[in-house]
Amino acid sequence: MNFRTRLTLTSAVLLVGAVTTACGGDDGAPTDASEKEFCDTQSSLIADLMPDDMTNPEVPSNEDMAEAVKSWGADLEKVGTPENIPEDARAGFEAVVEQAREIDASDFSIEKLEELEQGGEDASAEVKKQAQAFSDYLTETCGNPMEDFELPEMPEVPGSTE
Description:
The protein is mainly α. It has one domain.
């Protein structure tokens, strides 16, 4: 599995997991974060997982991924959200924090992803709405975190034509 696939897998586990988690956490995260602090913390997972040497990126192990996500979730909970976040987006944020808190290495396997996708299909309309609201809020407030990172071009496959 290459590095780009690993980042995509991480995002999928967290976003699908947010949909399958019950309606949020314990309301413990602050509600007075600045937008900059909120956005910096949201994108810190990707920054932390980026290898120092992009010419030969090493794929993080499932254990490393789980540890990084747990740490990121703790940072999210510590920073919280801006005061102006819509209520349904806040509930989606709480679900992501809860999912990050509970994640382990097995959550990064293909089998677990398939299981999470099945759970996502069965999630209530309200929970799906909250997850989408949080995703929309992130995009509107913080933009796409992948825009700030230059990933190496994928090598050409011998014998392929463009």
